[in-house]
Amino acid sequence: MAEEEVRARPVLARPVVANMTAYPIFLAVVYEALSFLLPSLWVPLFVLAAIFCGVCFCLATASMAFIHFTELYAVGDGYVSISRGLIQKTSAVVPISSIVEARAVFPLLPRLLGVGSVVIMTNDGSKHVLHNIRDARSFVERIANNGI
After folding, report:
1. Cβ(19)–Cβ(50) below 8 Å
2. What is the pTM of this model?
3. CB 63: neighbour CB atoms within 10 A?
């Protein structure tokens, strides 16, 4: 069986771009509405708080989308290869013969976005979590079928 690579899915890449382009428009609408309803002193404070929250949200979303470029998982003949990082590169090769349990986990938000995580437990007690896998169940099945 040839090596099959699975790259972590860029779950939040599109919302980052959408948020960065729509956010100034949203702020302008909110500013105009509040300048009409509230005294002029509170409006700049609200706008500064909204800009700060928006920048924090965009940075958090962009960091989650960055996972797409830094994680790579592969199932080969008798092993699972895990590679992470861009600046600090780490990699692990887990022999399938040492895998005790492989299961797919689907938390609420990733499930809504169509991704899941794969948790691999080995016989020496180590735990490897592979995040943002588009079809986590089939990835676990490939691990199970490769071990047979």
Report:
1. no
2. 0.57
3. 11
Q: Which two tokens stand for residue 98?
A: 């040492």
Does residue 101 lie in a domain region? Answer: no
Residue 39 lies in a domain: yes
56 domain residue, yes or no: yes
Q: Is 116 helix (H, G, I), strand (E, B) or coil?
A: strand
Query: How far are the Cα atoms of 46, 91, 140 from residue 83, in angstroms, in the given order?
Result: 43, 4, 17
Q: Which stretches does DSSP call E strand in 48-126?
A: 71-76, 79-84, 90-95, 99-105, 116-122
Other CB atoms within a 10 A radius of the CB of residue 80 amount to 26
CA-wise closest residue to 57 among 93, 20, 24, 94? 20
If one counts the domains in the chain, the total is 1
Length, in residues, of the chain: 148
Structural domain boundaries enclosing 26:
13-65
Q: Is residue 59 part of a domain?
A: yes
Q: pLDDT 10s per residue in the chain (148 long)?
A: 455 556 554 443 344 444 555 666 676 777 677 666 666 656 677 777 777 877 777 777 776 666 556 778 888 888 888 888 777 788 889 999 999 999 999 988 777 777 888 999 999 999 999 888 888 888 899 888 876 5
